[in-house]
Amino acid sequence: MVARRKIGLALSSGGARGAGHLGVLKVLAEHGVEPDVIVGSSMGAEVGGLYASGVGLDAMEKLWRSSSFGRVFKTLFPTIPWSGWSSGNGITRFLKDLIGDASIENLSVPFAAVATDLRSGQPHCITDGSLAEAIRASVSVPGLFRPVWMDGHLLIDGGVSNPLPVDVVRDLGADVVVAVDVLVDPNEVRLSGIPYLEARERAFLGIVQAAPPSENGRKFHPNVFSVLFQMSTVFQKRLADVHLAAHPPDVLIRPDFSADPPCYSNVGCGIEAGEDAARRALPEILRLVDRHG
Q1: DSSP label at 15?
Q2: Cα distance between residue 111 and residue 169, in whole Å
Q3: CB atoms within 10 A of CB 76
């Protein structure tokens, strides 16, 4: 008799697009595919950690769909010292309200949260201790949330060093790896800004009015937040592609968010996009599960 091989999930970072992870989990559960190992980076760690702790998919979906700007703002309250805009205590309280003092080593599904060691720059895999603190470390976006000290490591967002941790899933014993990539593609970001004035227009400033930025190639000056966001988008996407080339999963799921990109105050069609992508990948997943017993 051939022993059933372990199925592992690698859930990427991706902010509000993490709603897609929930859609994938829903479809897998509907078809009886239960992961034996879950590893998440940043928002993937939050979704995966809650699922591994036993928070029901219905409850998770209700949380996502009830998200609002006000609720998100509460987790971003400014703090001192100035090592991050927010202390992140709001996130920790939110997580502990859901999972209490759950420890990773006591979860029914083996789980790991990937963070980044700020001093070494290396990925840091958290496989024991407080689940809430592990998730809090993994989602610590640089500059937005204060870094977290854990076991002598100063930790920030896992997406900085390993946004799609397929390699960690394999290291934890998974034989078949399903990776879910909800990262933003740089080409999807619509950049805009104040009009760029050519030399002739600058000379007649106040007489000649420049046209607003548009899709027709008109030059513009993007604001600093747009530049920093796009820089992060490019960095994480290229890093994920490098990791995928080095550690290819058995199945790669990439939800299409183009119809209605989710944001924290409105998940839009994020969950549905994850469901659609999972259904397209389902035949291959079921074939692998069946082939391996």
Answers
A1: G
A2: 9
A3: 16
Dist CA 52 CA 109 (whole Å) = 5
Which listed residue (36, 117, 157, 181) is catalytic?
Answer: 157
Instruction: Please give the model's pTM, rounded to 2 decimal places.
Output: 0.84
Angle at alpha carbon of residue 39, lines to 53 and 285, rounded to 5°: 100
Check if 128 is active-site: no
The pLDDT assigned to 112 comes to 98
Residue 66 is given by DSSP the state: T
| Residue whose tokens read 């859930």 | 11
Nearest to 256 by CA among 236, 239, 235, 280: 280
> Is 232 annotated as catalytic?
no
Write down the catalytic residue from 42, 53, 161, 232. Answer: 42
The tens digit of pLDDT for each residue in 136-165 reads: 999 998 878 889 999 999 999 999 999 999
Which residues make beta-bridge pairs with 251? 178
Band of residue 191 on the pLDDT scale cut at 50, 70, 90: low
CA 187/CA 256 separation, integer angstroms: 13
DSSP string, 39-94: EEETHHHHHHHHHHTT--HHHHHHHHHT--HHHHHHTT-B-SSTTSSB-SHHHHHH
